[in-house]
Each structure stands twice: as structure tokens, then as C-alpha cells.
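Tutorial sheet, problem 5. The two components below are modelled jointly, 506 residues in total.
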Amino acid sequence: MRVHPTVTKDEVYRWLEQQTQQLELNPPPANLDSALAQLAEAMATVSAVVLPDDVEPLFP
Amino acid sequence: MAKPGTPELARLTVVELASSIAQGELTPSEVAEAYLGRIDLLEDRVQAWSHLDPDSVRADAAILTAEAARGQFRGPLHGIPIGIKDEFHMAGLVTQMAGPEIQREDAAAITRLRAAGALIMGKTHMPIDGVNPPTRNPWNLAHTPGGTSSGSGAAVSARMVPVALGEQTAGSNLRPAAFCGIDAFKPTFGRISRFGVYPFSYSHDHVGIIGLTMADVALVFSLLAGPDPRDPTTLPEPAPPADLEVETMRPPRVGVIRNFFPEHTEPVMHQAIEAAVARFRTAGAEIRDVFLPPDFATIWAIHRLVGGVEALSIQSGRSASDPGLSRSASAVANSLIPASYYVHAQRLRRHLHTEVQGVFTEVDALLLSVAPGAAPKGLDSTGDTTMLRPWSCLGYPAITVNGGLSPDDLPLGLQLVGRPMADYQLLRVGAWAESVLGRLPSPPIG
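Model answer (C-alpha cells):
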């Protein structure tokens, strides 16, 4: 999944769904849809911000 | 001075108890009996303790009493009872979230407490693998005490101990204190060693202190802070002094955050914030409205992504013996976070860590609430962490002070946030705020 150009929450959610299908979870865990939706929202949120190339990660 | 067996003794602060013990007015054994009496009286209802061995406490107190009688004092906490969140390893005991094995070594924070003379009372409840403990809020037993430092918050509030250790990854240290009507402090990331503290999220975990006053919290912080070669994230700065010297400080500059947080704040908490602002202003504080930079909107997503990857890494070791862990919805979702997103989130984190410091050129502390409102009813949820996660993610220091009571007599906790490494200055602001707003009394439980 690309970070930029910005992705939408729906795009990320569909990608996450495809990934989970490959995991062959049988049965899938309870509340998986909700967990994927929350994760999709987080990924789309950070994807919307483009930083200068020289901003290094913070690893405390 | 209160004598053993009187409820007043268990309402003293750490500073007051330490002074009385040092002057020979109280012995560590008398203090221990007073708090064991409180626990005996209230534990059935509050359920704060996951491990308590009164005989062991009495034996340790007897040693401390004998030393004091000889004029030997280990340190400023000689004979002071303290509760420890179950997440901290203690030699000879199980750390429940780490599994059934007996721990062989104390966490670094406990080692430092023992060296200062503290009397370790026992371990306090916390949620284990997502299951909340039976701990109840001493202000109203039908309400949560908050979490995950549930037992530590409830125990201090119920005056079962005058001070306790907690830990904050999202909002776990300040929230229980706020819900239970007492003070708490989460220092700058790296100020207190986390060696021997079972991890939730490597770069979000902070050792925290829960107490009755800012002076008590500052005293314990002065003994816990400082570098530790066993925790590579500890900072080289030495511990600050214990004396906050509030009497010599000028009223602080307080910035009231006017974006991102108000939309999550209930009317009763809005009123508590504005009431505090009015009293601060009357007492001479300089009040400013503060607007955080637009990119701050990403901080909750950053915490989710970084915390998710770190939690998965921690759980992977336990998953071998407990396959259910790797099959949970959150574990499956976390396993799908791309490395590119993890690194991008960490870059955003660096960006915000720098950007937000800009607001501190005009203020000494930021004011907001700890939670949207008072402690929710029931034990199914420990409450909302929205107001707290940003500061755990950025590693900024934060405290909670008294914001009064809700119409249904539940505590409303205010939050003050400082710039990184300004822990001592933030504690001074907290002590000043406490002098203006006062402290809540003991809860009506007994």
C-alpha cells in the first residue's frame, strides 16, 4: 500500500480486506471489521500529510 | 499529630508522614498498621490489590522501625507505604501480564524506592489481556476507577496508601487519578527507568506517580528520575530537586487549548476548565488561548500505528504459548500495518514533537481536561483516552490536578502539559494550581 499520493480510508480498507483474505482466518476473529476500519482511518490520516524529505523518524 | 488507629493518620501526605517519622513522632510500624487497617476496612468494596501480604509488610516495617530507632534512615521515604501497579516486576512475585513465572528481580523504580526507605505494601490491580479488574471507584462504587493503573488510583484515593506507582501508555496513569480525585504525574519520556516494567508499547510506556499532592509526587520523582544503564531510553539528566519552592514562584502563564480537544469535552468539564481559568486569572496567572498546529490532527493516528506495531512485536513472544493472542482482531489488524506507514508515522511524530514545542514560547503549561467528563458508570470500560494519548505519544510531561466535582459528586480532573524536560517546572505549576484550586477531600467511602 502506497503512502503517497494520499490514499482514502475506503482504499485502505479494501486493501486490508484483501490482505486478511490471504490469511485464511477460519473463523475470522470477532470485531475484525471494526479493527480494520479503525486501522484504515489511521493509515489514511497519516497518508494525508506530506513531510519535507529531511524529517527523520523519531525513535525515542 | 494523629496516632495509630485514627483515620486521620491515613489521610496524611507523604511529606507529612516522612517528617513525623524522621522526628520520631510516628514509627514505620505504626504507619503500616494504619494503612493495613484502611485496607482491611475497605478492600472488600474497592478491590484495589492484586497481591497483599500483611505479614510481610509488618516484617519489613519492623526492620524500618528498628533502623529509625537507631537513628538510621535509608532515605526520604523511610517507612512510607507505597503501592505498585502489577505491571512492575517484583522479586519473588508474579507479574500477571507477563505470565505465571516468578520474577527474580525488582524493577528499577522499585529498587530506587526501597533504597529511599519506602515500604512496599503490595501490587495493585490492572486489566490483564483486555479483561478489566474488579477495582471500583472509591467516590462511587458503581463507576470505574479508570485504567490501566486502576488499583493504584483507587488505593491512593481510598487512603490505603499515600502514594503509588502507575504506568501510562495511552492514558493509564493520569486517568485513574483524575477519576478518583487525586494527583498524578507522567514525566517526560526517558526520565524514569522502565527496566523491569512489562511493556505495552516500547516508545509510549512511561512510569508514572499517583499521589495526594504535587509536593508528594515531586518528592517521589526526585528519587526515581535519572539515567539507568539497564534502560537505554533513559535520559542523562539527573533528577530534579524535591522542593518545588512554590512560595517563590510567580503565577504561571497558562495556555488553554482551544482546538482539537473542546469538541471531545462534555459541558460539565467545559465548565470546570473555565472555572479554573477564572480562578487562575484572579490569582495572577497570565491566561492565553492556544491553538495547536493543524497537523496535530494526526497524533491519534500516529499513536495507533506506532502502538499497534510495538504491541504486536511484544505479543509475538507470548503468542507461542498463547495462540489466542495472535488471533485477536487487533493483532490481525496490527500485523497488516506496512513498514512504510510505521516509518511515516514516526516521521510525523518527530515533526509534531518539534512543532508543538513552539507554543511553549508563550506559556509555561497547556490546560485541558484528562477525560471528556467524570468516570463513566460501570466496569466494562475504563474511560476515554482521547485527551491523554497525544502526550504519551509525544513524550511530553503531564499532570492532573483537581477540577472539582460533577453534579453527581464524581471528581473532574484537569490536565496540565509541559514542554519536554520541563518536568520540574510543570510540577511547580501544578503545585501553584493546587494552591489556587485546593484538593478534594477523601472520598465518602469511609
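Marking note: Chain A touches chain B at residues 1-3, 16, 19-20, 23, 25, 28-32, 34-36, 38-39, 41-43, 45-49, 51, 55-60 (CB under 8 Å). Full credit if you identified this.
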